[in-house]
């Protein structure tokens, strides 16, 4: 990961210092100009893959996403490959007790090292939706209503 993070962080810092993000996100600026601007910012340790990633963002007018990409890579590096990010969406904010109970049940079920991220979406009406890796458990009221509607058709 360091082969990616270090040069990407250096590029992001240079972009911020030079204030070039808005220019690089401008769809009216020719890609060849964007390449010239970026190549001057690439540190010597930036691999071809790192450079290509930044150039791809520039070609899609999405250079502003670079800090988010770096953050995601950084979180992944800190967690290690064996961790499963488990996203829990509830209709209301869960109490610490409810979170503990849910986490205990999910760890028993998945037997993986899980890291939990919680969010609130009132549109689900009640219950929770759990996304652990490629598995989804929809225990929401809206999900149950949609399933019932489908069965009644």
Characteristics:
single chain, alpha+beta, 2 domains, elongated
Order of helices and strands: HHHHHEHEEEH
Count of discrete domains: 2
**What share of residues is helical?**
40-55%
Shape: elongated
Give the strand order of the largest sheet, numbering strands 1, 2, ... along the chain: 2-1-3-4
How many helical stretches? Answer: 7
Mean of residue pLDDT? 89
Backbone structural class: alpha+beta
Distance from first to last alpha carbon: 50 Å
Estimate what percentage of residues fall within beta strands: 15-25%
Which runs of at least 5 residues are low in confidence (pLDDT < 50)?
Answer: none
Largest sheet: 4 strands, mixed
Q: Radius of gyration, rounded?
A: 21 Å
In total, the number of strands is 4
How would you sum up this structure, described in words?
This protein is an alpha+beta fold and 153 residues long. 54% of the residues lie in helices and 16% in strands. It has helices at 2-18, 21-24, 31-39, 48-59, 66-79, 96-110, 141-152; strands spanning 83-90, 113-120, 128-132, 135-138. The chain has a 4-stranded mixed β-sheet. Helix 1 (2-18) packs antiparallel against helix 5 (66-79). The mean pLDDT is 89.
């Amino acid at each position: 990961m360091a082969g990616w993070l270090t040069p990407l962080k250096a590029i992001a810092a240079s972009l911020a210092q030079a204030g070039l993000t808005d220019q690089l996100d401008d769809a009216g600026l020719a890609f060849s100009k964007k390449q010239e601007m970026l190549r001057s910012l690439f540190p010597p340790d930036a691999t071809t893959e790192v450079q290509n990633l930044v150039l791809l963002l520039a070609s899609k007018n999405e250079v502003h996403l670079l800090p988010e990409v770096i953050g995601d890579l950084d979180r992944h590096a800190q967690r290690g490959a064996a961790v499963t990010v488990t996203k829990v969406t509830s209709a209301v904010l869960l109490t610490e007790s409810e979170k503990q109970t849910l986490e205990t049940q999910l760890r028993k079920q998945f037997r993986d090292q899980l890291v939990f991220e919680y969010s609130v979406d009132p549109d689900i009406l009640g219950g929770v939706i759990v996304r652990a890796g490629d598995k989804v458990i929809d225990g929401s009221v809206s999900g149950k209503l949609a399933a019932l509607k489908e069965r009644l058709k």
